[in-house]
């Protein structure tokens, strides 16, 4: 399932980025010719917000978010997995609160119009609960995969597993 979701995230992200690029390019060309398309910039901003959440979800699934693990790396694998699992549940609690509050904000902004586009501002604010739910699913998936993995694979919730080349180089440095 994560491989399938990853492909969907990649496709949606690529399409959003292509549409944003096209909209900004067309807006620049039309402005140059004296016929600005005000709505295209608004739509590009709206799509960019969604792209950020799709990208954050993909980065979470791939375990490539920036993190500070200087002290945690000193612990053995079992302790690191427990710490990351506790952090995962803390993040999930925060994301669920964010989703709930984002939903309330969306309901408040349903009648508000987004810029000159004529679209409801709710399409902007609903990205927060949707993105929070997607991130929650990614964290849960990573947590389950971490606990299903064995001691030999040493898969963690947030930390990307080292490649075999990195492990070999690290082992050579320790032995040499």
From TrEMBL:
It is found in: Cell inner membrane. Keywords: Cell inner membrane, Cell membrane, Membrane, Transmembrane, Transmembrane helix, Transport. The keyword Ligase does not apply. One of its GO terms (molecular function) is transmembrane transporter activity. One of its GO terms (biological process) is C4-dicarboxylate transport. Residues 21-148 form the Tripartite ATP-independent periplasmic transporters DctQ component domain. Pfam families: DctQ (PF04290). The chain crosses the membrane at residues 12-33, 39-60, 81-100, 120-145. It is a multi-pass membrane protein. It comes from the Bacteria. Belongs to the TRAP transporter small permease family. Part of the tripartite ATP-independent periplasmic (TRAP) transport system. The complex comprises the extracytoplasmic solute receptor protein and the two transmembrane proteins. This is TRAP transporter small permease protein. The lineage of its organism: Bacteria, Pseudomonadati, Pseudomonadota, Alphaproteobacteria, Hyphomicrobiales.
